[in-house]
Design brief:
Strands 2-3-4-1-5 form a five-stranded parallel beta sheet, with helices on both faces. It is globular, with a radius of gyration of 18 Å. By secondary structure, it is of the alpha/beta class. Helices cover about 45% and strands about 10% of the residues. It contains eight helices and five strands, in the order H-H-E-H-E-H-H-E-H-H-E-E-H.
Length: about 200
């Protein structure tokens, strides 16, 4: 017998929501950062804090709701759950486990005309201490982004590491790739090396 999953509406404030979809005009803009990220998955990796800051500025200027998390402050998993509840304004009943966190994500505010971005800085320490937990968390966020898109909601996750060799397993059957700006810088540097040789 098939299992039926009931998805709650993402934002109950709007009685007649419109689809926040991309159109051809969006795709012609060279700086369309949300499209560049989402076509490869919901999660984008950053090493350079300056590039991350520029990305956050772009999202703010385009009306996105930003949720900022400083992972260096988390010494326990309880620290993460408290930060998530406070920053995302999750319901009081949201418990201290990932199943409850996933269910409560439906309640976060995502502007219909733009979207929402979760930003995790200094993730490497937390990731190394709780690698399985971090993988499950990122997996949930990647899958949640797809579910939000079914309701016309853009949901993006930016993760920043101070360790340049940090790598991640695919989440939600998607690889976590380097952000578009640092990819271009890396490619330019490779081209310069090849030209010199």
């Amino acid at each position: 017998m098939p299992i039926t999953v009931a998805y709650p509406m993402c934002n109950k404030k709007e009685s007649n929501p419109k689809m926040a979809v991309f159109d051809e005009a969006d795709l012609q803009r060279p700086d369309q950062l949300d499209w560049k990220i989402l076509q490869n998955g919901a999660i984008s990796l950053y090493f350079d804090r300056k590039v991350l800051h520029e990305a956050c500025t772009w999202f703010r200027n385009h009306g996105y709701q930003l949720y900022l998390f400083d992972c260096t402050q988390w010494k326990t998993l309880e620290n993460f759950y408290k930060a998530a509840k406070d920053i995302l304004n999750l319901p009081e009943y949201c418990g201290g486990n990932l199943d409850s966190f996933r269910d409560c994500l439906w309640s976060i505010d995502i502007p219909q005309e733009s979207g929402a971005v979760m930003v995790f800085t200094g993730l490497e320490t937390f990731y190394r201490r709780w690698q399985d937990f971090s993988f499950e968390l990122l997996d949930i966020l990647e899958k949640q982004s797809r579910d939000f898109l079914l309701f016309g909601r853009r949901f993006i996750v930016l993760i920043q590491s101070n360790h340049p060799n940090l790598s991640f397993q695919p989440v939600g059957a998607r690889p976590i790739v380097l952000n578009p700006e640092e990819q271009e810088i890396h490619l330019r540097n490779l081209l310069k090396k090849n030209i010199k040789h």
